[in-house]
Write a structure and sequence with these properties.
Helix content: over 70%
Distance between the termini: 13 Å
Order of helices and strands: HH
Number of domains: 1
Largest sheet: none
Strand content: under 5%
Radius of gyration: 17 Å
Shape: rod-shaped
Number of helices: 2
Length: 72
């Protein structure tokens, strides 16, 4: 059961990072210069946040798997 949870957590982490990249790409293709700069800034923040959250989720999941394996 823990292995399946790890796989789902990895899938969530990849999905979150891809969504951050998608938000950044939307900012890159914006037509107006003022909107483009703001959207790129928001995209960069979203990308950094998604990578950070993905790292935290995977770390938590790994710790939980280690504790579960240690208690068996």
């Amino acid at each position: 059961m823990v292995g399946m949870l790890q796989i789902l957590t990895y899938m969530l982490a990849v999905y979150m990072v891809l969504k951050g990249v998608e938000i950044f790409q939307i900012g890159l293709v914006s037509n107006r210069e003022s909107v483009r700069k703001a959207a790129m800034f928001i995209g960069i923040i979203a990308l950094i946040a998604s990578i950070g959250c993905a790292f935290i989720f995977v770390t938590w999941q790994e710790e939980m798997a280690m504790r579960t394996a240690g208690s068996l």
